């Protein structure tokens, strides 16, 4: 045990604390974070893949469903009328790599409930200005789209109005209900509800928002890497401890292995110390 007393020095204690803290973070925070993202991405990809060939269902059948039901990306259809003057624009969008705006409108179903509808994307003009937005078609319409969960609201970016049209930074049903002054009914998905994102060639639709690529991403490999780091860190600490013990043993070995001096006095025939002395001893000293 006395050989391990060096581990009580401040440097070793600090190193051990850092290794333990790092391994703890790897197993409890970093690896679960990446593995959780991999799981959610895989679930999203499965929902999208299942919905591609599925027939649309009536959105009214989802309005009374359990919020915990996995209905995002579900294909749905709705019948009703667009609410006149309910257009809002979403900033900081992109279309083909260029600045764009998202176009939102309210859509009243035949049963009287009103949904938030994402009509798609329009390219900005002059680099950043919104183009003129036409009102959606009047009268009863049948539209198809996908259920999308409300986005998170950035508290640092408040809605504003430009040329009489509200501008927002995220598609969020509770926020747009306040901005438009309409009692929007969220589709019960997630904490803040969901809205309807129109598909291509629908009444009142612009360029549809493209579906995300069905790629799980690097999250699984990142999660496994953090687990590996959490295992390697204590092993590395153990290696350094073993190396320190080995070096200490090497330093003690010469002292214990050195022969003790004898009472007979010095060696009567000591080995020559220099190359010149060795040569003289072998061949005799050269004459001056």
List keywords for this structure.
4 helices, five-stranded mixed β-barrel, 21% strand, 288 residues, elongated
Molecular structure report:
This protein is of the alpha/beta class. The chain is built from four helices and nine strands, in the order αββββββββαβαα. It has a five-stranded mixed β-barrel with strand order 2-4-5-9-6. Strand 7 (160-162) and strand 8 (165-168) form a beta hairpin. Helix 1 (10-52) runs antiparallel to helix 3. The longest helix has 43 residues, at 10-52. The radius of gyration is 37 Å and the shape is elongated. The two termini are 64 Å apart. The relative contact order is 0.15.
Structural class: alpha/beta
**Poorly predicted tracts of residues:** none
Largest sheet: 5 strands, mixed, barrel
* Shape descriptor: elongated
- How big a fraction of the residues is strand? 15-25%
Q: Work out the number of β strands.
A: 9
Mean pLDDT reading: 84
How far apart the termini lie comes to 64 Å
Query: How large is the radius of gyration?
Result: 37 Å
Q: DSSP helix count?
A: 4
């Amino acid at each position: 045990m006395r050989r391990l007393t060096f581990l009580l020095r401040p440097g070793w204690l600090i190193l051990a604390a850092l290794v333990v803290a790092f391994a703890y973070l790897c197993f409890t925070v970093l690896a679960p974070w990446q593995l959780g993202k991999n799981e959610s991405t895989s679930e999203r990809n499965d929902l999208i893949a299942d919905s591609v060939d599925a027939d649309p269902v009536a959105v009214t059948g989802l309005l009374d469903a359990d919020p915990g039901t996995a209905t995002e990306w579900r294909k749905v259809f709705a019948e009703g009328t667009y609410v006149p003057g309910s257009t809002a624009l979403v900033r900081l969008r992109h279309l083909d790599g260029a600045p764009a705006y998202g176009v939102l409108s309210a859509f009243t179903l035949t049963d009287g409930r009103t949904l938030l509808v994402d009509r798609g994307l329009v390219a900005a003009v002059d680099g950043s200005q919104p183009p003129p937005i036409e009102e959606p078609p009047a009268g009863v319409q049948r539209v198809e789209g996908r259920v999308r969960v409300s986005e998170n609201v950035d508290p640092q970016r408040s809605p504003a109005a430009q040329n009489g049209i509200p501008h927002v930074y995220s598609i969020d049903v509770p926020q747009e209900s306040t901005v438009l002054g309409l009692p929007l009914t969220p589709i019960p998905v997630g904490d803040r509800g969901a809205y309807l994102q129109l598909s291509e060639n629908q009444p009142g639709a612009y360029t549809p928002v493209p579906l995300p690529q069905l790629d799980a991403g690097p999250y699984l490999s990142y999660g496994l890497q953090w687990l590996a780091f959490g295992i390697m860190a204590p092993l590395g600490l153990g290696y350094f401890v073993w190396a320190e013990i080995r070096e200490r043993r090497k330093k003690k070995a010469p002292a214990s292995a050195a022969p003790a001096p004898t009472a007979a006095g010095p060696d009567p025939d000591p080995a020559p110390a220099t190359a010149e002395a060795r040569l003289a001893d072998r061949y005799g000293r050269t004459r001056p």
